[in-house]
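Lecture 7 notes: from sequence to structure.
We start with the chain below.
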Amino acid sequence: MEKLYDLWAKRNPEWEKRFEEPIFKTFADYGKGNTSLSETRGKIFGAGYEIFIIAFFIGLYFDQTRKLTDDKEERKTCGQAIQYWGNIETRGIRQTYGAIRDYIFAALIAKTDIDLIALDKGDPKVTPRKVVDALVEKMEEYANFGLYYMEEQLIDNPDYFFRDKAFLRLFLQFIHQQKEEEQQAQDSDDLPEEL
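Predicted C-alpha coordinates for the same chain:
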Protein backbone atom coordinates (compact mmCIF):
# COMPACT_ATOMS: atom_id res chain seq x y z
CA MET A 1 0.00 0.00 0.00
CA GLU A 2 1.27 3.45 -0.89
CA LYS A 3 2.20 5.70 2.01
CA LEU A 4 -0.27 8.41 3.01
CA TYR A 5 2.47 11.04 2.64
CA ASP A 6 3.16 9.96 -0.95
CA LEU A 7 -0.53 10.04 -1.86
CA TRP A 8 -0.82 13.54 -0.36
CA ALA A 9 2.35 14.71 -2.13
CA LYS A 10 0.89 13.74 -5.53
CA ARG A 11 -1.91 16.28 -5.10
CA ASN A 12 -1.98 19.80 -6.51
CA PRO A 13 -3.86 22.08 -4.07
CA GLU A 14 -6.30 24.70 -5.27
CA TRP A 15 -6.77 28.36 -4.43
CA GLU A 16 -9.29 30.99 -5.45
CA LYS A 17 -8.67 32.73 -8.81
CA ARG A 18 -9.51 36.09 -7.25
CA PHE A 19 -6.00 36.08 -5.69
CA GLU A 20 -4.14 35.63 -8.98
CA GLU A 21 -3.59 39.34 -9.69
CA PRO A 22 -3.39 40.88 -6.22
CA ILE A 23 -1.28 38.16 -4.60
CA PHE A 24 0.22 35.51 -6.90
CA LYS A 25 1.25 37.77 -9.78
CA THR A 26 2.31 40.56 -7.42
CA PHE A 27 4.69 38.47 -5.33
CA ALA A 28 5.65 35.51 -7.54
CA ASP A 29 6.65 34.64 -11.09
CA TYR A 30 3.35 32.74 -11.26
CA GLY A 31 2.49 31.71 -14.82
CA LYS A 32 5.78 32.89 -16.27
CA GLY A 33 7.58 29.60 -16.39
CA ASN A 34 11.24 29.35 -15.56
CA THR A 35 13.26 31.56 -17.88
CA SER A 36 16.58 33.32 -17.48
CA LEU A 37 15.10 36.41 -19.17
CA SER A 38 12.27 36.83 -16.70
CA GLU A 39 10.74 40.26 -16.75
CA THR A 40 9.77 39.77 -13.14
CA ARG A 41 13.19 39.67 -11.50
CA GLY A 42 11.95 41.95 -8.72
CA LYS A 43 9.45 39.38 -7.44
CA ILE A 44 9.85 38.19 -3.87
CA PHE A 45 9.00 34.57 -4.74
CA GLY A 46 9.61 32.38 -7.77
CA ALA A 47 6.89 29.79 -8.27
CA GLY A 48 3.27 30.30 -7.26
CA TYR A 49 3.43 27.46 -4.76
CA GLU A 50 5.89 29.53 -2.71
CA ILE A 51 3.26 32.17 -1.97
CA PHE A 52 0.75 29.35 -1.33
CA ILE A 53 3.15 27.95 1.30
CA ILE A 54 3.41 31.37 2.98
CA ALA A 55 -0.38 31.73 2.95
CA PHE A 56 -0.73 28.22 4.42
CA PHE A 57 1.57 29.05 7.32
CA ILE A 58 -0.24 32.34 7.97
CA GLY A 59 -3.49 30.39 8.31
CA LEU A 60 -1.80 27.74 10.42
CA TYR A 61 -0.16 30.24 12.79
CA PHE A 62 -3.44 32.13 13.20
CA ASP A 63 -5.13 28.71 13.49
CA GLN A 64 -7.80 29.98 11.10
CA THR A 65 -9.28 28.36 8.03
CA ARG A 66 -11.57 29.69 5.34
CA LYS A 67 -13.52 27.46 2.98
CA LEU A 68 -12.80 27.90 -0.71
CA THR A 69 -15.55 28.92 -3.08
CA ASP A 70 -17.72 26.00 -4.18
CA ASP A 71 -17.49 27.19 -7.80
CA LYS A 72 -14.75 25.02 -9.36
CA GLU A 73 -14.48 27.53 -12.24
CA GLU A 74 -13.26 30.11 -9.73
CA ARG A 75 -10.34 27.96 -8.55
CA LYS A 76 -6.82 27.40 -9.82
CA THR A 77 -3.97 25.11 -8.87
CA CYS A 78 -0.36 25.82 -8.02
CA GLY A 79 0.66 24.12 -11.26
CA GLN A 80 2.72 21.35 -9.69
CA ALA A 81 2.06 18.49 -7.34
CA ILE A 82 3.34 19.02 -3.79
CA GLN A 83 6.07 16.42 -4.31
CA TYR A 84 7.77 18.71 -6.83
CA TRP A 85 7.61 21.89 -4.78
CA GLY A 86 11.13 23.23 -4.53
CA ASN A 87 12.68 20.35 -6.46
CA ILE A 88 12.60 21.82 -9.96
CA GLU A 89 14.60 25.01 -9.79
CA THR A 90 17.42 26.04 -12.08
CA ARG A 91 18.30 29.33 -10.43
CA GLY A 92 20.99 27.56 -8.45
CA ILE A 93 20.59 29.36 -5.12
CA ARG A 94 17.50 27.55 -3.85
CA GLN A 95 17.49 24.31 -1.93
CA THR A 96 14.82 21.65 -2.05
CA TYR A 97 11.72 22.04 0.10
CA GLY A 98 11.68 18.52 1.51
CA ALA A 99 11.65 19.69 5.14
CA ILE A 100 8.93 22.28 4.47
CA ARG A 101 6.75 19.62 2.85
CA ASP A 102 7.34 17.39 5.89
CA TYR A 103 6.34 20.19 8.30
CA ILE A 104 3.20 20.96 6.31
CA PHE A 105 2.21 17.28 6.30
CA ALA A 106 2.85 16.91 10.04
CA ALA A 107 0.80 20.04 10.78
CA LEU A 108 -2.04 18.74 8.63
CA ILE A 109 -2.02 15.36 10.38
CA ALA A 110 -2.19 17.16 13.74
CA LYS A 111 -4.89 19.66 12.69
CA THR A 112 -7.18 17.51 10.54
CA ASP A 113 -9.93 15.43 12.13
CA ILE A 114 -9.06 11.99 10.80
CA ASP A 115 -9.15 8.59 12.46
CA LEU A 116 -5.72 7.15 11.71
CA ILE A 117 -6.46 4.05 13.79
CA ALA A 118 -9.51 3.25 11.63
CA LEU A 119 -7.39 3.84 8.53
CA ASP A 120 -4.72 1.48 9.83
CA LYS A 121 -7.35 -1.16 10.62
CA GLY A 122 -8.70 -0.95 7.08
CA ASP A 123 -12.09 0.51 7.97
CA PRO A 124 -13.89 0.94 4.61
CA LYS A 125 -15.32 4.28 5.81
CA VAL A 126 -11.80 5.69 6.27
CA THR A 127 -9.93 5.10 3.02
CA PRO A 128 -6.55 6.60 2.11
CA ARG A 129 -8.32 8.65 -0.58
CA LYS A 130 -10.75 10.16 1.94
CA VAL A 131 -7.94 10.95 4.37
CA VAL A 132 -5.85 12.64 1.66
CA ASP A 133 -8.93 14.58 0.51
CA ALA A 134 -9.38 15.83 4.10
CA LEU A 135 -5.69 16.76 4.40
CA VAL A 136 -5.69 18.69 1.12
CA GLU A 137 -8.96 20.43 1.98
CA LYS A 138 -7.52 21.55 5.34
CA MET A 139 -4.36 22.74 3.57
CA GLU A 140 -6.37 24.74 1.04
CA GLU A 141 -8.51 26.26 3.80
CA TYR A 142 -5.48 27.39 5.83
CA ALA A 143 -3.94 28.87 2.69
CA ASN A 144 -7.23 30.52 1.76
CA PHE A 145 -7.36 32.26 5.12
CA GLY A 146 -3.76 33.35 4.60
CA LEU A 147 -4.54 34.75 1.16
CA TYR A 148 -7.50 36.71 2.51
CA TYR A 149 -5.29 37.99 5.34
CA MET A 150 -2.61 39.11 2.88
CA GLU A 151 -5.21 40.84 0.72
CA GLU A 152 -6.63 42.69 3.74
CA GLN A 153 -3.15 43.87 4.74
CA LEU A 154 -2.52 45.14 1.22
CA ILE A 155 -5.86 46.98 1.16
CA ASP A 156 -5.04 48.69 4.47
CA ASN A 157 -1.44 49.41 3.46
CA PRO A 158 -0.37 48.65 -0.15
CA ASP A 159 3.30 48.63 0.91
CA TYR A 160 2.77 46.24 3.84
CA PHE A 161 4.58 43.25 2.31
CA PHE A 162 7.08 45.29 0.32
CA ARG A 163 9.06 46.36 3.36
CA ASP A 164 12.38 44.67 4.02
CA LYS A 165 11.82 41.22 5.53
CA ALA A 166 8.06 41.78 5.86
CA PHE A 167 7.15 38.09 5.73
CA LEU A 168 9.88 37.19 8.21
CA ARG A 169 8.65 39.91 10.57
CA LEU A 170 5.13 38.56 10.32
CA PHE A 171 6.21 35.09 11.48
CA LEU A 172 8.48 36.50 14.19
CA GLN A 173 5.44 38.41 15.43
CA PHE A 174 3.58 35.09 15.79
CA ILE A 175 6.46 33.60 17.78
CA HIS A 176 6.72 36.69 20.02
CA GLN A 177 2.96 36.63 20.66
CA GLN A 178 3.09 32.93 21.54
CA LYS A 179 5.93 33.52 24.03
CA GLU A 180 3.96 36.37 25.65
CA GLU A 181 0.90 34.13 26.02
CA GLU A 182 3.03 31.36 27.55
CA GLN A 183 4.58 33.85 29.98
CA GLN A 184 1.15 35.18 30.98
CA ALA A 185 -0.10 31.64 31.57
CA GLN A 186 2.97 30.86 33.66
CA ASP A 187 2.57 34.10 35.64
CA SER A 188 -1.08 33.30 36.38
CA ASP A 189 -0.05 29.81 37.56
CA ASP A 190 2.45 31.39 39.98
CA LEU A 191 -0.19 33.60 41.67
CA PRO A 192 -1.43 32.40 45.05
CA GLU A 193 -4.94 31.03 45.14
CA GLU A 194 -7.66 33.32 46.42
CA LEU A 195 -9.29 32.40 49.70
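Points to note: The longest strand covers residues 14-16. The chain has a mean pLDDT of 84.
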